[in-house]
């Protein structure tokens, strides 16, 4: 009787040990996704952004913000913010699909986005063509912060959108070698407030489709 009674207990202990010793598939998939994503970006940079090679020192530049005489009028800074914002929200959905809890997925997405973009900025600093820009790093943080804020506040997420509208500029349409990422004259960044998120406006069918847009 004692032997028979101990068998289930032994099986239970064995099952617990096997679970603890088995690799965590969620954690493994998450790590693979982070490493793969960062690797793809770096490999792309090696064939495009940093194709001229690197120097032996970290060089920095004070690029300014949105002044008339700054590069692209600061549109590249909006590009950094939007790229970080979109990347964080997409990664949060992906990490949830891999089995992470919603809050953990958002934290992982924010950390992965900021870390990857910081790595790119550091490599820019060592490259022959570009420089490390603290303004770029700050705008990356702004985009990630906005993504985290909207992810954590469904009510605010229903009210606000951060959007990118792109239409190729004249130079791009003339066949110049300009990619959509660097075609700043064709980019418009929009912060949208949606009437459908306001209860008093949502009651009226025509008004619910109105949007208030502020763009750059």
Q: What's the N-to-C terminus distance?
A: 79 Å
The side-by-side strand order for the widest beta sheet comes to: 3-4-5
Could you give the count of β-strands?
Answer: 5
Note the run of SSEs as H and E. HHEHHEHHEHEHE
Class computed from helices, strands and strand pairing: mainly alpha
Described by strand count, sense and barrel closure, the largest sheet is: 3 strands, antiparallel
Tertiary shape = globular
Helix content: 55-70%
DSSP summary: helix tally? 8
Detail the poorly predicted runs. 1-7, 16-23
Give the rounded overall mean pLDDT.
87
Written description of the protein model:
Helices cover 57% and strands 11% of the residues. It is built from eight helices and five strands, in the order ααβααβααβαβαβ. It has helices spanning 2-21, 25-47, 75-97, 102-126, 134-152, 154-159, 170-173, 199-202, and strands at residues 60-61, 132-133, 160-166, 187-194, 211-215. A three-stranded antiparallel sheet has the order 3-4-5. Strands 1-2 form a two-stranded parallel sheet. The chain starts with a helix and ends with a strand.
């Amino acid at each position: 009787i004692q032997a028979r009674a101990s068998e289930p207990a032994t099986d239970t202990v064995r099952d617990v040990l096997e679970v603890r010793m088995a690799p965590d598939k969620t954690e493994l998939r998450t790590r693979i996704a982070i490493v793969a994503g960062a690797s793809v970006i770096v490999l792309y940079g090696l064939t495009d952004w940093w194709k001229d090679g690197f120097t032996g020192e970290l060089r920095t530049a004070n690029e300014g913000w949105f002044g008339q005489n700054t590069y692209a009028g600061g549109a590249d800074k909006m590009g950094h913010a939007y790229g970080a914002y979109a990347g964080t929200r997409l990664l949060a959905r992906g990490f949830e699909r891999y089995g992470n809890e919603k809050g953990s997925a958002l934290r992982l997405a924010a950390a992965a986005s900021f870390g990857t973009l910081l790595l790119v900025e550091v490599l820019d600093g060592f490259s022959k063509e570009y420089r490390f820009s603290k303004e770029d790093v700050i705008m990356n943080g702004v985009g990630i912060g906005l993504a985290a804020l909207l992810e954590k506040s469904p009510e605010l997420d229903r009210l606000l959108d951060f959007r990118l509208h792109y239409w190729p500029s004249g130079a791009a349409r003339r066949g110049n070698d300009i990619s959509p990422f660097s075609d700043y004259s064709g980019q418009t960044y929009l912060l949208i407030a949606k009437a459908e998120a306001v209860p008093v406006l949502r009651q009226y069918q025509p008004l619910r489709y109105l949007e208030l847009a502020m763009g750059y």
